[in-house]
Amino acid sequence: MNESHRRVRLAKSSNRLSCQTAVRQVQPSFKSRLAQATRVMAPTLFALTFASVAHAQGTMDFSGAQTLMGTFKTFAIYAGAVICFGGLIFAGIRMLSGRFQDAIPGLFGALFGAGVLGWGAGWIGSLTGQSM
To answer: Where are the bilayer-spanning segments (predicted)?
Structure first.
C-alpha cells in the first residue's frame, strides 16, 4: 500500500509540474510584454515628439527671412525681364524675316516673362509684407 500511495503522489506531483510548466508557457514573458507595450506606445510617443517640435516653432528666429525673400524678389524681377526681352527679341527677329507664325511662341514667352516680372515679384513681396 505504501508503494502505491507513493506512485499516486508522484503522479500528482508530476501533473502539478506539467500544469505549472504549461501555465508558464501560456503566460507571456516579460520581454514579450515589454515588446508589445513598446509597439503600442511607439506611435503615441512619435506623435507627441512632433507636437512638441511644432509648439517650439514660435520661438525660432526668422530675422533673415526678409533679406532672403528680398533676394528672391530681385531674382524674379531680373529673370522676368530677361525672359520678356528674350521673347520679344526672338519674336521680332522672326517677324522681320516674314515668318509670323514662328513669332507666336516668342510673343507667349514675352507674356510669360511679364507675368514673372509682375506677379512673381509681387507674390514674393507679399509673403513678407514688402512693398513694391
So the answer is: 37-55, 75-96, 103-124
